[in-house]
Design brief:
Bound molecules: 2'-deoxyadenosine-5'-diphosphate, magnesium ion
Largest sheet: 4 strands, antiparallel
CATH topology: Alpha-Beta Plaits
Main location: cytoplasm
Strand content: 15-25%
EC number: 2.7.4.6
Low-confidence stretches: none
Catalytic activity: a 2'-deoxyribonucleoside 5'-diphosphate + ATP = a 2'-deoxyribonucleoside 5'-triphosphate + ADP; a ribonucleoside 5'-diphosphate + ATP = a ribonucleoside 5'-triphosphate + ADP
Number of helices: 7
CATH class: Alpha Beta
Mean pLDDT: 98
Pfam family, one: NDK
Strand order of the largest sheet: 2-3-1-4
Radius of gyration: 14 Å
Cofactor: Mg(2+)
């Protein structure tokens, strides 16, 4: 088994609804250790850059507006198969298709307002971690 790091966001909807602790509990229960974390409020340029892969899609502009609508928690999670494991406990993008017991099935209120982000590949994990954290902000555990 390979110990990996992945990048995660608790999105503005979940922060507004005081779900930070509940979602962190899901990470820890799944064996994903928090090795870096901070709260911040994205500005438009930073949100656009983060979701650049979706530029031009019909949902891109409302997504950027939502992601800048309030503070978020960004974190690096570490564990065996962390990238796939985190995607598994998040559930599918569309909460109506997400498996019961996943974060999105339990807490998302729409396809857009779906509580969490998680990297989908080693390449995106690396890019996304470096987009928000300097190497010295990530702790060995
Ligand atoms: P994921 O967040 O599961 O990796 P994604 O990368 O395809 O999904 O899309 C990024 C975010 O954009 C997603 O979490 C919510 C929003 N989004 C995606 N498809 C959408 C749609 N059809 N309508 C509204 N928002 C959408
Ligand atoms: Mg994605």
């Amino acid at each position: 088994m390979v110990v990996e790091r992945t990048f995660s966001i608790v999105k503005p909807d979940a922060v507004r609804r005081d779900l930070i602790g509940t979602i962190y509990q899901r990470f820890e229960a799944a064996g994903l250790k928090v090795v870096a974390a901070k709260m911040l409020h994205l500005d438009q340029a930073k949100a656009e850059g983060f979701y650049a892969e979706h530029e031009g899609r019909e949902f891109y502009e409302p997504l950027v507006k939502f992601m800048t609508s309030g503070p978020i928690m960004v974190q690096v999670l570490e564990g065996e198969n962390a990238i796939a494991k985190n995607r598994e406990i998040m559930g599918k993008t569309n909460f109506e298709e997400a498996a019961p017991g996943t974060i999105r099935a339990d807490f998302a209120s729409s396809v857009r307002e779906n509580c969490v982000h998680g990297s989908d590949s080693p390449e995106s994990a690396s890019r996304e971690i470096n987009y928000f954290f300097t190497p010295d902000e990530v702790c060995a555990r």
